[in-house]
């Protein structure tokens, strides 16, 4: 044993930590760089957590369901590691409403939020020499999980001028016999895009051609307010197998409850292979799921949340997205190539040649935090250097205030403005 630890217990254990940037990591550094005053409170438009703002609150029925399950004293023990049967069934029924083939409870595995669903998906697919195709820009947890599992990451670009659609030619060029999956995030984080039925079908056809599967991240499912309605990727499960990842977090506005799922959408049975199912179950044995009483509340939460609650959330996001885009038009040195149609964030391009003393997106965000106490996410964190991600899931007053400060900052650091002096 001593030899494994590098020659004795007093020596430090040498392990290599992946050097990936994480959203929470960089936001923590930016927050430490702010200077809140009585006049300027810190406004964060960096994190996709709408609960930071009082205008976004979860439905009463969700709280009642959790209190009921907790006070019943029936759910203080372990749940099966794949999830409570009634929870799995409720989610299967909920997702089946829009699918041609009905899901059953056994297709659903309950996870601690969508992040654990990502970890579960990559862990069960990992094998020596494997690679995975990830969107750029995208959600950095995929690359971090891949690094821990020794899965090679290959990035395909999303095309801003085409509604951030997947560059399918790039996908075909990147894939080989070791490709374990193509990740598709829809509605899109960080871009705010919502893919059309046709584009999703083309992605499924591409996966079929490449003999791989689609990992469909639908954590922002149904949060669509533009021309394209939300279409679940599972509709195309008969073309190529689909692992659907989702959670209560965004649609029900309860990200801290950590209730997510991984679902096999696969009418042809590829993912129902007994060995594969056993692999998923064994991995669930390792990681355990969310708190049992939260799981037990899910059937009531799904069945009794009224449509008016969902409509209110979507209308509010549509309004704040509108504010965001209108205000950005007034700000020098930045532009928004695509008006968001879903999720809670938008990507904005920095025009550095127009700026004085700003070297890149990281520099921009750190100086903005220091000078204006506004937190935005540098694009580098989501794979797109010299862009920034703005989260518009905020109350309109705070959003307008933050964007007003962003405008002042950009004017101060703009060549055009400085030429006038």
Automatic annotation (TrEMBL):
Tree of life domain: Eukaryota
A GO term, aspect molecular function: pyridoxal phosphate binding
UniProt record, GO biological process: L-tyrosine catabolic process
Pfam families: Aminotran_1_2 (PF00155)
Cofactor annotation: pyridoxal 5'-phosphate
InterPro entries reported in the protein's UniProt record: Aminotransferase_I/II_large, NHTrfase_class1_PyrdxlP-BS, PyrdxlP-dep_Trfase, PyrdxlP-dep_Trfase_major, PyrdxlP-dep_Trfase_small, TyrNic_aminoTrfase
Keywords carried by this UniProt record: Aminotransferase, Pyridoxal phosphate, Transferase
Residue list for modification N6-(pyridoxal phosphate)lysine: 250
Family: Belongs to the class-I pyridoxal-phosphate-dependent aminotransferase family.
Name of this chain's protein: Aminotransferase class I/classII large domain-containing protein
